[in-house]
Specification:
The structure is a single chain. The protein is an alpha/beta fold. It has 2 domains: 255 residues, Alpha-Beta Complex (Polyamine Oxidase, Chain A, domain 2); 166 residues, 3-Layer(bba) Sandwich (FAD/NAD(P)-binding domain). It is 29% helix and 18% strand. The protein has 15 helices and 23 strands. Strands 1-20-23-22-21-10-11 form a 7-stranded mixed beta sheet. The protein has a 5-stranded parallel beta sheet with strand order 3-17-4-5-13, with helices on one face. Strand 6 and strand 7 form a beta hairpin. Helix 1 packs across helix 9, helix 3 packs across helix 12 and helix 7 crosses helix 8. It holds the Pfam family Amino_oxidase. This is FAD-dependent oxidoreductase. Keywords: Signal.
C-alpha cells in the first residue's frame, strides 16, 4: 500500500505501545559495521562505515522523546514534575512545559528538581538520583554543590542517556546517535555553553533541497502545510481534542487531488510530505496519535520573543556531561526495579537484589520507561502522575550514519528530503558542507522507525541506500561544497 494512501485514510491509532512492546530489547545502538552485500542492489555505493539507532528497542529509553498525544495537556507535564510527599522528585524532558523533547528542557528540569529538593530537605541529607542523562546529572551537580550527599544510579554502562556521542577510529569526527540539535537558541544558553567548551555548532535553519523519486529538484508549495493548518484550525473549534489524522479527514483538508502535476507530484503527495518530513520527525509519533490541540505544528510562539535559530552540534554534545559528572558518586549498570517511600525516607531495590537507602529520590528516567512495569513505586504514584505518564506520548526518531569514500551526490545543500514514492528515509543531513567529510545522516520517525527497529543492519542499510537514489549522480563533482 502506498504510504500516501495509508496516511490519508487513517483516522485511528495503530497501537504504538503494542508495537514497541514487540521489539526485542537491545541495550545499545548497533556498532560500526562494514556492510555486507544485500539482495536488493542500489545505484548508491556501499558506505565504508555505518551506525544506526533503535531507540524504541532500547530498554533504558523506550523511545526518543515525549510528544503531545491526543488528550494530553501541557498541565500534565507540570503535574508529572510535582514532588510526591516531598520524597520523590521528577525531572526529564517529559516534565518540561517550556521545551519538552529537547536537551535544554531536560537540563532545565534537572535544575527545577534540585530547587524542589532544596526547598524540602535539610543540608547533608542523602539524595539518590536515578538516571545519568543530562537531567539527572544537572540535578546531582546542583545538589552536591549545595552540600547534599548525592549518589547516581544509572542503568547503562555510560552517562548521557539519550545524549550519545560516539568517538572511534572508524569516523573522522564524533557522531551523535542521540540528541544532535540545540533548538530555539534565543531561549537557551545551551549553544553558548557548548561553544565555551570548544564544541562547534552550526546554524541549521535553511529549507531542504527537495527531490522527486526521479531525482528532479522541486520547490515546495504551501499545499501540505496549508492543509495541516486548515485541519488544526478546524480541530481548535471542536469540543474535545482529536488526532491530527482525524482532523485532516473530518475537516476535509485531506481531500486533495491525486493527479500528478508536470513534476510528477500531486497535491496529495505534498500533504504526505508535510506529514512524513515535518510532523513525524517533530513528534516522533504517528499522526493518528498526535494531538491537534497541542501539536508543535500549531503556531504558539510569543510574538515578542525571538526564538532564535536551530543549530546542529558538530560532535561532542556529551562534552556538556563531563563537568556535571565530575566528583559525583555513581553506580553504573544498575537497574532500579522498585522505589519505596514513606515519611521515614526512601529505599531503592536494584535488579541485582541489592537495596539502597536515601532520604529523597530524584527520578529522571525517560517517559518511555515510566510507561512500562520495570520500575515499581510503593505506594503507587498519585493519579495525577499516573495519568500524565499514561496520557503523554513517547515518540521515536532513529538515525543511520553513513560514511562514504567520496560523495556520490552533486548538491551542496546541507538538508535533503524527498516527495512522492515510498522511501523509508525521507530526510537526510549532508555533513560535507558542515564538516568537509563525505558523511550522510538519515532520519526515520514514528511508525516507520518502529517497523525498521525490527530489521537487521543489512535490511536497514538497504532501505537507506534505496532512499538515497534520488540524490545519486553518475558523475558527481569531486567536492560538491568546498570548491
Amino acid at each position: 500500500m502506498k504510504r500516501r494512501t495509508f496516511l490519508l485514510g487513517s483516522v485511528s491509532g495503530l497501537g504504538l505501545v503494542a508495537l514497541t512492546a514487540c521489539v526485542t530489547p537491545t541495550p545499545r545502538p548497533s556498532a560500526s559495521v562494514t556492510p555486507k552485500p544485500t539482495s536488493t542492489p542500489s545505484l548508491v555505493p556501499k558506505p565504508a562505515a555505518m551506525r544506526r539507532t533503535s531507540w524504541s528497542a532500547d530498554p533504558f529509553a523506550r523511545g526518543s522523546f515525549s510528544y503531545p498525544a491526543v488528550g494530553a495537556t501541557p498541565e500534565q507535564r507540570a503535574a508529572l514534575g510535582q514532588p510526591v510527599d516531598d520524597r520523590l522528585f521528577f525531572a526529564g524532558e517529559a516534565t518540561s512545559t517550556d521545551a519538552p523533547g529537547t536537551v535544554q528542557g531536560a537540563r532545565d528540569s534537572g535544575k527545577r528538581a534540585a530547587r524542589d529538593v532544596l526547598a524540602a530537605a535539610s543540608l547533608g541529607e542523602r539524595i539518590a538520583v536515578i538516571g545519568a542523562g543530562i537531567a539527572g546529572l544537572t540535578a546531582a551537580r546542583d545538589l552536591q554543590d549545595a552540600g547534599f550527599d548525592v549518589f547516581l544510579v544509572e542503568a547503562r554502562d555510560r552517562i548521557g542517556g539519550r545524549i550519545d556521542t560516539v568517538t572511534d577510529k572508524d569516523w573522522p569526527f564524533p557522531i551523535e546517535l542521540g540528541a544532535a540539535f540545540v533548538r530555539r537558541t534565543g531561549q537557551t544558553t545551551l549553544d553558548e555553553d557548548l561553544t565555551d567548551r570548544g564544541v562547534a555548532t552550526a546554524p541549521f535553519t535553511d529549507p531542504p533541497e527537495v527531490r522527486t523519486a526521479a531525482g528532479t529538484v522541486v520547490e515546495v508549495p504551501d499545499t501540505g502545510a496549508q492543509a495541516v493548518a486548515t485541519a488544526l484550525a478546524w480541530a481548535a473549534e471542536q469540543p474535545t481534542d482529536v488526532s491530527i489524522a482525524q482532523s485532516l479527514a473530518d475537516s476535509g483538508a485531506s481531500k486533495l487531488s491525486t493527479t500528478d502535476a508536470d513534476t510528477g507530484v500531486s497535491d496529495a503527495d505534498w500533504l504526505d510530505y508535510q506529514i512524513t518530513v515535518v510532523l513525524d520527525p517533530l513528534a516522533g509519533g504517528p499522526v493518528p496519535e498526535q494531538s491537534s490541540w497541542y501539536s508543535d505544528a500549531n503556531p504558539q510562539a510569543d510574538p515578542d520573543t525571538d526564538p532564535g535559530e536551530d543549530r546542529i552540534v558538530l560532535g561532542g554534545f556529551a562534552t556538556l556531561l563531563t563537568d556535571l559528572s565530575d566528583g559525583i558518586d555513581m553506580l553504573g549498570s544498575s537497574v532500579v526495579t522498585k522505589i519505596a517511600y514513606s515519611e521515614a525516607g526512601t529505599s531503592l531495590r536494584l535488579g541485582t537484589g541489592e537495596s539502597l537507602s536515601a532520604d529523597r529520590v530524584v527520578v529522571t528516567v525517560p517517559l518511555g520507561v515510566l510507561k512500562t512495569t520495570v520500575m515499581e513505586f510503593d505506594p503507587p504514584l498519585p493519579f495525577t502522575h499516573r495519568g500524565a505518564i499514561s496520557a503523554l506520548g513517547m515518540g521515536t526518531l532513529d538515525k543511520i550514519w553513513l560514511q562514504f569514500d567520496k560523495p556520490f551526490w552533486d548538491t551542496d545543500a546541507p538538508l535533503w528530503s524527498t516527495v512522492g514514492g515510498d522511501d523509508d528515509f525521507r530526510v537526510w543531513i549532508n555533513m560535507v558542507p558542515l564538516t568537509g567529510e563525505p558523511v550522510l545522516v538519515g532520519l526515520v520517525a514514528a511508525e516507520t522507525a518502529l517497523r525498521l527497529a525490527e530489521v537487521d543492519d543489512d535490511e536497514f542499510l538497504a532501505a537507506a541506500l534505496s532512499s538515497l537514489e534520488p540524490f545519486y549522480s553518475a558523475v558527481p563533482t569531486d567536492n560538491p561544497t568546498t570548491e
